[in-house]
Design goal:
heterodimer; A: 289 residues; alpha/beta; Rossmann fold; four-stranded antiparallel β-sheet; 10 helices; B: 314 residues; mainly alpha; MetI-like fold; two-stranded antiparallel sheet; 11 helices; 2 strands; 67% helix
């Protein structure tokens, strides 16, 4: 068993392993991440269904997301992967007509509670979007944005936090000399790592990634994947991806969605090498989707 | 069975001719409109340039055209602009922020939205009449002959209810005129901010207000400022609503407080242009040059802000 501390306990960055060096590894051939020790459940989902208006987007899902591991959600477009992700940090509250039923909990927090303080939830559950979307502010102010929302900071503490977050996202060396330049001057891949650093700066427990590399070139993609692997030990990561090789390379657990239903979930190695369902096999071998 | 028609049946020469003719027709129309404008401007400038000097800008009106100055009208317009901006910008930007960022998308919101679009097309004299009734006379609830007076008439903080023909009434009338313009321009600027920016702000735990204050409004600010300046340049050229609320056409003094009588640049020009003496028409032309100069400066600032700050956000 790993560290039994409750998920909500605040952890400092100092306890976390240092980020990987900025240089990316050469693109690996399609490989499957080595099996990892199972951990306790971070997010438990039971009988969960979600609707947009009358459209049933997710139908009766039940599965667990392990703590401090990478969980991939795979499946064809429109299968409900992103909808599910958007429910975890309640971003669907912003969508007109979005509603749900069932259970979803993070530790002992009921994520679907109407009275839940979503501001606090979103501090604990960070999110990275498909398209890099830095604010039209300086690099520094992009990172400092989240922390400043939640507390008043001494300048020196904030400086440290910005550096730590950028180092974690393997971006520090590239931007340390131009922290006060516009974030929009960065390349697409750098912008996406900036967005990851921005999400890390509020010190979340969970990191949600909605196809974080789909708008990037192969080199930037491999750097993002390296980064996800490096963050794995410290964060519970849930990543939506269209790219099955990516799911195989980076995730410990894979969940296969099809037309709003959960077809199969389990350790990535098993799901890819020995799927139980024929639909899963057809999808992971590229026969459809 | 019909045989397929060969593609090149229409003579290519005739098509080229039509193409060229249309190009020249468009060029001619463009030249006509721009040309007419240039002729008008040229006439005004040649007529008014002679009288335009520092004395014209720094002295008040006079019965003798060669001594007539624009100073009182310029200061009056300045008062009107500052007051109008103070009222119209917070109200307009606030309305736009509410409608874009906070209002539920329901029937009432759509109704308000539709009405704002309609209000932007209402003739300004109508707003003048509304302002006269509402601000000038308080709907007749208070006597205009024996107004309630607050403060010392000599001081800056003098207030009189109802406002009557005060510069404040004029500014409020202009506020009504430009408010829909400010709201619509601000809404467009806010709508141009990519929704993904709002989403990432909310995903970091920002409240709606924090998102508006630190992400959406700053990103929309250049667009809002451009709209605001264009609205102000519309207000400074308005004469009709000011006539309706009782602005003076001949003033010897600049305003002392919000209750003072006033005149504005378009009103002074209107006054001069209506005099029988031809020399006053030249003076009016000088006034027009000043007014146009201010308008072009405003528009240039707006274009500059748009070009300089309104970078593509994504």
């Amino acid at each position: 068993m790993t560290d039994p501390a409750p998920i909500s306990a605040a952890r400092t960055h100092a306890e976390r392993s240092p980020a990987r060096p900025a240089r990316s590894a050469p693109p690996a051939p399609v490989s499957i991440a080595p099996p990892s020790e199972p951990t306790e459940t971070a997010i438990a989902v039971g009988g969960f269904s979600a609707w947009y208006g009358d459209f049933l987007a997710l139908d009766d899902l039940t599965f667990d997301i392990p703590r401090q591991r990478v969980t991939s959600l795979i499946g064809p477009s429109g299968c409900g992967k992103s909808t599910f992700l958007w429910w975890i940090n309640r971003m669907n509250d912003l969508v007109d007509g979005a509603r749900c039923d069932g259970r979803m909990s993070l530790g002992d927090v009921d994520l679907l509670d109407r009275k839940l303080d979503v501001v606090d939830l979103r501090r604990r559950v960070g999110m990275v979007f498909q398209k890099p979307n830095p604010f039209p502010k300086s690099i520094y102010n992009n990172i400092a944005f989240g922390p400043r929302l939640h507390a008043k900071w001494r300048r020196s503490d904030l400086d440290d936090l910005v550096e730590r977050s950028l180092r974690q996202a393997a971006l520090w060396d590239e931007v340390k000399d131009r922290l006060h330049k516009s974030a929009l001057s960065l390349s697409g891949g750098q912008q996406q790592r900036l967005c990851i650093a921005r999400a890390l700066a509020v010190e979340p427990d969970v990191l949600l990634m909605d196809e974080p590399a789909s708008a990037l070139d192969p080199k930037s993609t491999s750097r993002i994947e390296d980064l996800i692997r490096a963050l794995r030990d410290d964060y519970t990561i849930v990543i939506v991806t269209h790219n099955m090789q990516q799911a195989a390379r980076i995730s410990d657990q894979t969940v296969f969605f099809y037309e709003g239903r959960l077809i199969e979930w389990g350790p990535t190695t098993e799901l890819f090498t020995n799927p139980r369902e024929s639909q899963t096999e057809d999808y992971v071998t590229g026969r459809f989707g | 069975m019909s045989r397929p028609v060969p593609l090149a049946t229409r003579p290519i020469g005739r098509r080229r001719l039509a193409d060229r003719a249309f190009k020249w027709a468009c060029a001619l129309v463009t030249f006509l409109s721009v040309g007419a404008l240039l002729v008008l401007l040229g006439a005004v400038v040649s007529q008014g340039l002679e009288h335009l000097d520092w004395d014209f800008l720094s002295t008040g009106p006079s019965r003798r055209p060669e001594r007539a100055g624009f100073h009182i009208a310029i200061v009056g317009s300045l008062w009107l602009m500052i007051l109008t901006a103070l009222f119209a910008l917070p109200l307009g930007v606030g309305t736009a922020v509410y409608l874009e960022e906070f209002a539920p998308k329901n029937r009432i919101t759509r109704f308000i939205q539709l009405n704002i679009a309609n209000l932007a097309g209402v003739p300004s004299i109508v707003y003048g009449m509304v302002a006269l009734t509402a601000f000038g006379r308080f709907w007749g609830l208070l006597s205009t002959k024996n107004p309630i007076e607050l403060g010392d008439e000599e001081s800056f903080f003098y207030l009189r209810l109802p406002f009557g023909n005060a510069v404040l009434t004029g500014a409020l009338a202009l506020t009504l005129v430009v408010l829909p313009v400010v709201v619509i321009a601000s809404q467009e600027a806010l709508r141009a901010v990519p929704p993904t920016l709002r989403q990432s702000s909310r995903a970091l735990g920002a409240t709606r207000w924090q998102t508006v204050a630190s992400v959406t409004l700053p990103a929309a600010l250049p667009g809002i400022m451009t709209g605001a300046i264009l609205a102000m340049s519309r207000a400074i050229g308005e004469a009709a609503p000011l006539l309706a609320v009782g602005a003076s056409l001949f003033m010897l003094f600049t305003p002392d407080n919000l209750m003072s009588q006033y005149t504005g640049m378009p009103l002074q020009i209107f006054n001069w242009a209506g005099r029988p003496q031809a020399e006053f028409h030249d003076v009016a032309a000088s006034g027009i040059i000043v007014l146009l100069g201010v308008l072009l400066t405003f528009n240039a600032i707006a274009v500059f802000i748009r070009a300089k700050f309104q970078k593509p956000l994504q």
